[in-house]
Design a protein that fits this description.
Layout lengths: L3 H4 L4 H14 L5 E2 L14 H12 L12 H15 L8 E4 L1 H13 L5 E6 L3 H9 L3 E8 L5 E2 L1 H6 L5 E7 L11 H13 L4 E4 L14 H4 L5 E6 L12 E6 L6 H13 L5 H12 L4 H22 L3 E2 L8 E2 L2 E2 L1 H4 L5 H12 L1 E2 L1 E2 L11 E4 L4 H15 L1
Parallel strand pairs: 1-13, 3-4, 3-6, 6-7, 7-8
Antiparallel strand pairs: 2-9, 4-5, 8-9, 10-12, 11-15, 14-15
Helix pairs in contact: 3-11, 4-11, 5-6, 5-10, 12-15
Bound molecules: pyridoxal-5'-phosphate.
The site of pyridoxal-5'-phosphate has 13 residues, from helix 5.
């Protein structure tokens, strides 16, 4: 027996790995372009951060720590957010989590019940949808418009607000489309949130992985609309496996006190986030090395190459990414007449070539007909991948 909650739980980004493992057994080389993990490629956790982790365990910091997070780390997060994004927050506004993933879990647990609604971007990072359903909520997707470089459709967002809406979630730079929302759109979303008295949840995990454009943090654009920001150490600090993140409450008019209190109770009920990773994170924030910038420069070359190749392949259309490490091409399913949908396409591509992407429908209804590929691998691997995709489609 298993609950309906778990029966219905899906996570396409890793569910496709089950198929990839079967294909590997046939002797085929697998190209894992499905998971957004820089550390499995040539972007390694900086030595001084790993050293700090090892020092922490040998110094005996192996006990349960404060449920809200190690106080020194909460202070460092405030300083870091101030220097990076010019946000004024206090250590009390910070909760250290086991990754942004746990932050989203906590927030949706605190906001949703009895089919109350949360507005999420469509296409959406899958856990926004899956965790919302898990908590008996109703995730409502507002459209990111592919015709308009995947920018959010503000009218669509406004039209989807109902009396049951509890919050608006934004994720810019966005997974899976790679769009960094235009500052005007972010301001418009903040205005709408203010009009309807809704908080904004801002998943900022890719805020430092941007290419041509400048990232503007929503909390710096808001005067009194409450914003709950989510960020962590997985991507910019190259420590995906450490499972460490944080949530900050930017709440100038104290509208979030009840929600914050509830989430803190949940944090106590799960004891604490990883203690030694928190001590290492203090070091990462105090001494930011060149690793993020180096990664972004390398990623830009990899994005340029991937985008160029995708544009040359007949039957695929692709909008360029100005942040993250994903591209989200559209498959002209009608032209090929070989696959019924994006999932069939991705599985067939995987079986024939070993190239493992993620089917777009795994990112909600607006993802249908697309697939997501990461451009994290080095250029040599990307060249092999795009040769394979090109041959496959020919
Ligand atoms: N949010 C987005 C948009 C992501 O793409 C990911 C991972 O790919 C996460 C959150 C997960 O972050 P973490 O490793 O901090 O749990």
């Amino acid at each position: 027996m298993v609950s309906r909650r778990l029966k219905d739980l899906e996570y396409a980004i890793r569910d496709i790995t089950v198929v990839a493992n079967e294909v590997r057994k046939t002797g085929k080389k697998i190209y894992h372009l499905n998971i957004g993990d820089p550390v499995i490629y040539d972007f390694k956790t900086p030595h001084y951060i790993s050293q700090a982790l090892s020092d922490a365990t040998f110094a005996g910091q192996n006990f349960y720590v404060d449920s809200l997070g190690v106080p020194e780390l909460r202070e460092e997060v405030c300083r870091y957010e101030k220097s990076k994004n010019d946000i004024d927050i206090e250590p009390d506004d910070i909760l250290i989590t086991s990754g942004v993933t746990e932050g989203i879990f906590f927030l949706l647990a605190g906001l949703l019940e009895n089919k109350s609604e949360i507005l999420v971007p469509g296409p959406a990072y899958p856990i926004y949808i899956n965790y919302a359903k898990f908590f008996d909520g109703n995730p409502i997707e507002y459209q990111l418009d592919e015709e308009n470089d995947w920018e959010p459709d503000i009218d669509d967002l406004r039209n989807k607000i109902t009396s049951k809406t509890t919050a608006i979630l934004i994720n810019s730079p966005n997974n899976p489309t790679g769009v960094l929302y235009d500052i005007k759109k972010v301001k418009e979303i903040i205005d709408i949130a203010g009009e309807y008295n809704l908080p904004i949840i801002s998943d900022e995990i890719y805020d430092q992985i941007v290419f041509e454009k400048h990232y503007d943090c929503p909390a710096t654009l808001s005067e009194d609309v409450p914003i709950i920001g989510l960020n962590g150490f997985s991507k910019a600090h190259l420590a995906t496996g450490w499972r460490l993140g944080y949530m900050y409450f930017f709440d100038p008019t104290s509208q979030l006190q009840e929600l914050k209190g509830g989430i803190e109770k949940m944090a106590r009920a799960r004891l604490c986030a990883n203690s030694i990773a928190q001590y290492a994170a203090i070091e990462a924030l105090k001494n930011p090395g060149p690793h993020t910038e180096t990664m972004v420069n390398n990623l830009k070359r990899r994005r340029d190459y991937s985008y160029k190749r995708l544009r040359q392949i007949e039957g695929l259309n692709c909008i360029n990414a100005n942040g993250t490490f994903y591209l989200f091409p559209k498959i002209q399913l009608g032209e090929f007449k070989r696959w019924k949908n994006d999932k069939e396409f991705v599985i067939d591509l995987l079986k024939e070539t070993g190239v493992c992407g993620v089917y777009g429908s795994g990112f909600g209804s607006y993802g249908k007909g697309h697939f997501r590929l990461t451009f994290l691998p080095d250029l040599k691997i990307l060249e092999e991948v795009y040769d394979l995709i090109e041959d496959f489609l020919q």
